[in-house]
Structures are given as C-alpha cells and as structure tokens.
User: Fold these one by one.
Assistant:
Number 1:
Amino acid sequence: MNIDILSVFPEMFVGPFDHSIVRRAQENALVSVSVYNLRTFSSDQKGVVDDYQFGGGPGMVMKPDPIFEGVETILKDLSQSEMAKTRVILTSPQGKMLTQGLVSELALQSHLIIICGHYEGVDERIRENLITDDISIGDYVLTGGEIAAMVITDSVVRLLPGAIGSQENLLGDSISSGLLQHPIYTRPAQFRNMKIPSVLTSGHHQNIKVWRRRKALERTLARRRDLLDIQNLSAEDRDYLESLGYNPNHRLS
C-alpha cells in the first residue's frame, strides 16, 4: 500500500511513523508513507493555501487550487487500475465517523491520499469534485487534520497482511470482535493481595472461553451499550445479558 498525506504542517509527522508497527511495516515494504507540504503546490510565491470566505464569516478557508494540484500531481502517473484502488480522504469534523469496519475497507485499497483539513474548513468544490471519503475520528474539535491522518494511517497499516505477527491478535481486538475486550492479566498471579480470577489458571479451556465471552459482554454493556444494539448476539449471549437486565429488543434513540 502507498499512503500519501497532504499537510500544511508536514513536520508534525516526524516521529509518529518512525516507531512500532508503522515503522516495521515500512521497513518490510508492506507500506510506503509519504508526507507532502501542501504549500509547495500553491501558485502563490509565499505558499498561501487559505483565503477569506465568500459572503463573509469567521476564519479562513483552504483554497481549492493547491489541494487539486497536490492530488493530481500524486495521481498523474497512475494507471487506470491503480486509480480504481485509490481513495482520496479529507479529514473533517463533518465526515463519516471512522469505525473499524471503515478501517478494514480502507485496508483493502492499494493507495490512500489523505488531505489534512485545517482552519474553518475547505472550499466545498474539493468535497464535491475531488475526494472519495470525508472522514472524522470523533465528535470533538482538533487544531487540524494531522492527528486524524495519523490515526487513520496507524489503524489501516496494522491490518495489512504481515504488519502484525498473528491474525489472532487482530481478531481479539476490542471493537474488531464487535465487543470490548475481556479483562486480561499477566504475572504475577497475585500482586499486593490482588489475585487474578482462578478460572484463568484452571487449565479448563472451555470455561476460560465462556468466562472471557461473558466478561466482554459485561464490559460492553457497561461502557459501550450501543455496540450491543448492533451486535449479532447468540442465544447464549442474549440469555446472559438478559440475566444482567439487558433488553436485546430495546434500541437506543
């Protein structure tokens, strides 16, 4: 996969992609991550990429010409088949919420271009005529889209085949499984009079499996009940949740 990022603050990316899974994925040629300074695509000698709003209003707006020029420069040498596997993403609070399902979809592409939104927003012609995806990482306001671009990149890269040693690790992730992860423990078995649940040292794999599933259901019910409302629960799951007072037929408004 190739990931190209357009930003007015490319120096923010020095460091985050030089460690852990993203670094190893680049070293193993699983992904190539390139960051471009959007100002270099500006026709203005000073590299201006923003201007005032037509009709008045607070804040500056990102101009269309540097962004179009930047994306088109990246795309110009691609074949039709490569173009078909390219997604052009704008980071924006107006966008579709980033979920693990969307991350999995993006990980199937061979090329992502991420435009880091800034200021009051972008010229609407960018959204209407250039991007394929408008993505938000949450209902809160950031200074700019750089952190969102890092989040998108990290979440996608870790799903690339070979990026993580075991596929089982991915399947057990919170959210990926549809539920929050069950509690996990490691040595020592007793720490400051705090003992781990005895079932985990019982050697009874089926009992451990049931315990973990139930704890995942309990934690999801307590912390992210909305996930249960869309979860395809088994009859056993439903029975257990009903014993905790959960009504599977109820939907959050």
Number 2:
Amino acid sequence: MEGLNSLESKNIQELSKKLVVKAGSYILNNVNQLNHKNYKTNSDGNKEIVTQIDLDIHNNIEAEITKNFPNHNILSEEDIESFNYGFNDSVWIVDPLDGTSNFSNGLNVFGSSIAYIENYKTIFANIFIPSISSLKGDYIFWSEKTGMLLNNMEYKNSNQSNLSFVPGNLYTDYKESKNYLKSKYISKDFRNYGSMSYEGAMVALGKVRSMLSNNPKIWDVASLIGIFSGQNKSIYLRELGNKKNEWVYMESMEKIYKNIEKKSFRIGFDIIFMNE
C-alpha cells in the first residue's frame, strides 16, 4: 500500500472497524428515543434534517481519527468546511448516520459508513446497518486483501433476488422510470428505503440485485466503491447528460475520485452497484 507500512495499515484498518461498530451501537441505543429534528444547509445549498445523534457520531469519529492519525484528512457529511480538498493522500470519508429521516421517525432503516481512501482509491470500507437477526446490528468490512467480511467472518452470498433499489424520482416521473427500465441492470420491481448505506449493504449481501443512484455525493458511496470492486460484484457508470443511456463498467476507482465536484461533493456520474 503506497505510503503506508504494514503496521500503520493494520492500525488504520482496526480503527475503521472500531469506529463503525461504535457508531452503529450509538445509533441503535438512541433509535427509539425522542430525537429532535434540526435542519442544516447541505452541500447543495438545500435544507435537510440533522439530529444530535448525527453530530455526536461525527464528533466522536473525528476526535478518534485526529488522535490516532493527526496528519490524515477527514471529509464528513457533517463538516465539509474543514476538509482540505484532495483524494490522493490519506483521507477518511464519513457518513455518520445515513438515513436520518428514517432514524428520527423511529424507523430502523439507516446505516453508518466509514471509508479510508488513499491515492484515489478506497482502501478500507465499513458499513453498519441494523439487523433482524442481531440486536447489535451487522457490519460489513472490505479490503482488497480480506474481501468482504460480515461481522468479521467471510461472507459468500447466492443472489436470487430480482429486486432493485432506485432513487425516489423514478416513482414520480414515469417517463424517466421507463428509460431506466430499459437497462439490463435494473429490475422492474424496485424500492427506495431512504438510506444508500442500507440499500447498498443489502445488495452487497445478496438480498437485492442492484442499486441505482443519480450523481450521489462521495460520502454516500465511498465504502460501496470498495465493496463492489470485489468478487462477483460490479459497478457501472453513466456520464451525466448521456443521451444514449450508455452504462460503462468501472475499471478504476480513480475515474470517480478524480471527478468529484469540489463544492457539492457529487461524483459526476450516475452509478449502479450490482451483484452479478
């Protein structure tokens, strides 16, 4: 791994796992509490919901990373102003609580994502989601060396689903939904759960066939970019404004990390994550 020795790499890996489990536990401990809805201005200039839980998790993660790796750069959805733009050095990309609207209404469909990036590439990926089989929830870890692990155990799925996750606008714009359904990657049976981390994890685990997102922000997909570069998984990109509706297989993560818009942090592509 460029720029890292084996000990430092191991320490980063272990810290990333520790932080996402800690974040997930904190979310689960507070999901049935009264979580007051505040509003913030997001990177697009629009208003969106934020709770104290989002901010608590962000503050804890930032403090832990800074204590252990003071020279590393941090991009968190809850603090874009502090980020020194660039994805070639050591960068942590954090979405403390993805699915805040669900969470603030007591709905257990959300996730937490922490990715470590270096040289325009996701090196370590972590996603925490609630689980019907475990009160502690489930967490996914990925690296090139380990492949995808579920709760620290090797995980192999057999995808039998013909369900896809899509953005909400496909429900409201019939003409647009017809165009997408011409794609061989999107099934005719689709849903939207309001958390890309949760939805992406369901695809990674083989519960769902694919997930589509229109030009997402990098903290929504940084972990997924790593996970879906693994075995039996694929990423397809379509340039914005592509009138031919052409999807291209992503051969290198650099294509995304070198294309991120500096103000909004959107990746500049529509993207499909797929189990194949």
Number 3:
Amino acid sequence: MKPISEFYDLLNKSTKTKKVVITMHQKPDGDAMGSTLALYHLLVKLGHQVQVISPTNWASFLDWIPGAQQVWDYEKTRMFSDPCIKAADWIFCLDFNVLYRTKNMEPALLEAKAVKILIDHHEQPQTEAFDYGISIPGKSSTCEMVYDFIVSSGHRELIDPDLASCIYTGLMTDTGSFRFPSTTASVHEVIADLKNLGLVHSQVHEHIYDSNSEQRLRFLGHSLLKRMEVLYEFNTAIMTIPKADLLTFHTKTGDTEGLVNYLLSIEGIRFGAIVIDRDEERKWSFRSKGDFDVNEFARKHFNGGGHKNAAGGNTGDSLAETVQKFKRVLLDYKSALN
C-alpha cells in the first residue's frame, strides 16, 4: 500500500471524469456515514461520477446528513451495485481496516480492478488489499482524516457548510461528544476551521441526539433496569440483550447505538461490555477507560478488534454460552482491571 500522499497527483491531475465508488463498514455509524459523504461532496465538486454504497442499512438518525438520500444499501441494490463496483476507476474504502467488514460486498471489492484507496483509523489494516492508503489509529475519527485529505490535497476552499456538517458528525460521534482521550488539540482546531467555513454545529447535535423514538427510550430503560449486571470485583459492567427484547420493543437499526457507553458512566467502572443476540450471531461491543486495551481483548477472545478503548466482536455461540465465556475470561484480567 503506497502512501496516500502519492495519490494526490492522480486526484489533482486527472482531467477525465472518473467513476468512483465510496464504501464503508457494515451497519455504518456517524463516522462512517459522515466521512464517506464528506468525500462524496468533494469528489462531485471535482467533477467525478460518484456513488456511495453502504454494505447494509444504517440508523435513521443519520438520514439527515447531506447526501444520505443518494447512498445505496448494497443488500437492497446488489443488481445495480455490483456492476457499479466492477466499472469503477477508483474505490475509496473508509472507516474499516479489513475487507470482510463490508460483509457481502467483500467478493465484489476483491474482484474489482479499480484503484483502491484506504482512509481509516483502526489498527492492523489489510494493507495488501489497497493500492494507496493511510491508517492512523491515533486519529479521533475517519472524518478527521478526510478533513486532512481535503486540506493536504489542496482543496480546503471546497469545504462548504454541508461538507462541514458531514465531517463534524464523525468528529462528534467517534469522540463521544469530545470526551474521549482521542479528542486531541487538532480535533478542536479542525472544528474551529469548520466553524469559520460555515458549520452550524448545534444542528448536528440536535439531529443525532434529539431524534429518539418513544420505543427506543423505553428499550433503553428496560435494558438498564433488567439487563445490566455490575461486577464490582472486576470494575466491569455487562449488558445482555436477548432477541426477545429486540422484538418486544420493535428496535430498529441504530437503537442499540451508544448503550455500552452508559455502563462506563457508573462510578469506578473501567470496562463496559454489551452483547446483543442477533439472528446469525451474537455481537459484542466493548468500551474501557485508561490503559485497559479492549482491542487486544476483542481480538484474542471474540473475533474482533478496533481501538484501545473501543472495540467490537462477534461469536456463533449462544447468548448464554458467550456470556459465560466472557465471565470466565474476565478472571484473567482481574489484576489489570483493579
């Protein structure tokens, strides 16, 4: 994988309209949608033919992001998406480090002859899968990296309020509204620049955090009351969500987003974990404070990975079996968590 700086010449010297596909990880969050749509707006302004394709659907509270209505859901548009991927000149892969995180899109991406460009902040990228790229785990978000890409390639003047809103969405959500350690001075410098370029940040907060349905709040209350277990001897809290709860409260994509963060809000808790019973697998989300590395924990025990303080995993075990395994494995980390 060549440095992304070597791609700038291709971007800036291309006089011919390129067919471009931009994609992200399955079940995209605010950073994935924000970064892909920010790049979408840039490349459209540069005169290219651009299509954003998400491997799956996404949470409805992201539908307001400028350009979201033009995004294709691969699972619903495969007959159009596959030829689009095949015909692409450039494929940008944002906010994921390995191709399998695009779920059913992976074979089409592997077969595509396009130049593939990675922009991501997760550890251990699949470098052999990309022609150009940049991977900086220390960055707050992929949105911050897209901002850097735009500025470093010489196109800051193309950032308008819509593009700025896209970038701010990922900056805000991936830093936990700027409270996580990943919120560096450079993050605030980016925000200051976006504000000078027309960003109305309060509207982004309102779209993301003030759009809950009544059912989601009832689901949240039930989960905190009935599904949370606090293991004080390990400074750990776990939430176990059975499939029956998802059906009872008619949950939609995105309704479980952020639940794990409530666990870390308990005084003294350093490790929070939530497991959700999905049809095909059990999905884990891990969060931590301080030096406890949930990326290493997820990779070693739950087929996952991510960042030092935020990671995910999955398993084919039953809900009861995977919770038992979690508690068994936790014994090995008691000293680290205390």
Number 4:
Amino acid sequence: MSTPPLPPEAAAAQLGFQIAWGYVGSSALHAALELGLPDRLAAGPKPVAELARETGTNEDALYRVLRVLASFGMFEEQAPRTFAANLPAQLLRAQPGTPRDILYFLTEPHHFRIHAELLHTLRTGQPAVEKVMGKPVFEVFATDPAFGKVFNDAMTSMSAVAIPAALEAFDFGDIRVLVDVAGGHGRVLTSILQRYPAMRGVLFDMEHVIAGAGPLIGASGVADRCTTASGDFFTAVPAGGDAYIMKHIIHDWDDDRSLTILRNIHRVLAGVSNGRVILLESVVQPGNVPDFGKLIDMEMLLIPGGRERTADEFRALFARAGFDLTRIVPTASPLSVIEAVAR
C-alpha cells in the first residue's frame, strides 16, 4: 500500500524535523568511520552480531546505528540484521583518494560543541571555536598534535577529491614554477607535478605542517622537482614562482587578512610575465539555490572566522590586491578553479 502524499503544512513541518535532526546522521556517520565499518564490510555483507564482536560494541546499539545510516542511503540491510557496504559506504574506506578523512573531521565531537555555540558568534561576531577551545583554531592545531593530524589528514583527503576534478577542468601546463601556499602535506602540488613533468613546485606551509609532508612527496615520485619552505604567509611567501595556488585557504580569513596574503603574493610576482594566483574554492551561488558553499560558509563563520564568497566578491577582493579576475572554471567537485592575473 502506497503512503498518501503529505498535506503542504505537514511537509513543511517535516522539513523542520529534517534540519533539526541533522546531527543524528552526523554522529552515526562518525561512529561508523571510527569503527572502520566501511573497511570491515569491504569483502562482503556481515551480520551485526559479527560486526559487534569485531568492534567491541553492543549489538543492538550497533544495529540501530547502521539502520539509521541505511535509511540515509549509507550501507544496506540486505537481510535481517545483516549489512553490506553500498557504493557510498565503499567510498569511505580508509585508503588514499577517498573522502573518509574529511568526513571524519567534519563529524568529530569538536564540531558538535562548536556548532552548539552559534548564538555566541551571532551575538559577538567572534568564532565560536575560541569560546569552546580557548584560542584560535590554527593555534589549537599547532598545540594539539592529535587534533592537528586529524585536520591535516582531512585537508589531504579533500584535496584527493578536488584535485582530480581540477586537473580535468583546468590546464596548468604553461606554469614553470608553481608555489602551493599553505599546501599542507602536498597532495595538490604533487598531483599537478605528476600531470606536468616539466613543471617544478614549492610546497609552503608552517613548519609543523611541512614536517609531515615528506612521506607523501616521496611516494609521489616528484621529489626531485618539489622543494619545501616554511613560514607565515601573513609575513611573506617564497619568491620564484610564476603561479601561486591555494586550496581552501582564502576562505579561512576575512577580507583584510585575505588581502594581506594576496598582496604578499602580488609583491613576489612583480615583473613576472603572466604572474597569477589560482584558488581552489567554492563559489557561492545566488538566491535560494542549494549550495555546498553555503554549508562550508557556516564552518568558516564558526571556526576560523573566514567566509565563502560569490564571484563578485572574489572579483572585488582580487582588485583590491592588484589582480584581475580572469576566469572561474567549475569542476566536478564542489570547488571551482579561480584564476587572477597580477596587474
């Protein structure tokens, strides 16, 4: 028997419940990732009783968590109390190239505590993370190695999703030396260098981040063309590049601090023919259009104090820093490639 359609008022009320209970799916997903359920089901379906023994969890509780995830489309109950990893779950295995680590970071408990303090940000204009954790988030990452590793792994994971799409959509081939500013462990830079064997690269980030980049650079096969440098991009960036790339960096900062970074890049591009900056960022869509960038914008509001931007806002920001926005290239990932040339 089919379910009759909901009256408009009931459907509208249901929307409120869906939004209100969004954290239920987030907490269930985090538990599934913490327990390694996508990997445990990689070889085929398993009864919940077996998964509970493997993970040291309560069988009934685990069943109920898997049941709600399956209702969202993550995992499948193929027989009573027996679950399989469907494609969305398979994509969350703990291996390179999957979004597992970025989703683990976005659903970990710090986020629940920070987002619970949204009203603090609304009333003060200050990032809620500073109330919850007592200091700006990048100071937290620097002083809490475990949490810093979760963040750095998340950024590498996000790069693994975004950079293949960017490489398909954008031609980096005329760049001689590419400097990746705040490039983390180097997933973006090494992926581009692998595609373009004549290109050289410089990976630039804070010292404690660069310290963890060696294994990825070594495994990429481009170590002979990739050097590293450490420092503070609010003070200076390495000279010598004809293009400077940043993935999800400008969105961390308000306009004034973003301008400091962009002007430091502009300074080292003086006299460089076709010197440019390339951003991998979300571009906020107008109106009521559902948009990944609008969700990321809440993360920026509450944690680093930055913001996502529209195309016009990027254009204005670049102009103030001495650049002309030349193109925005959408990709198959949530991020676009945004290019601006130094005047």
